[in-house]
Amino acid sequence: KTFAGDPQVSDQSGHLYPFSVPFAASNQPKPGDEGFCEAVESEMRELFSYLDKKNYTNLDSEVKISERFNEVATALSVSPPAPAGESLDPIVLFNNIYHIYRNLNINDIKILKNILRYERTDLELYMQILYRWFCFSDQCPETTLIRPSEQIIYLYAGFFVNTIGGRAIMFRRDPLFRILFTYYCILIIHEADKEKRNTYGIDLVPLIKPLEKQMAYYPKIIFRDEYLSLLDNINNYYLNNR
Question: How much is the pLDDT for 234?
Answer without folding.
Answer: 96
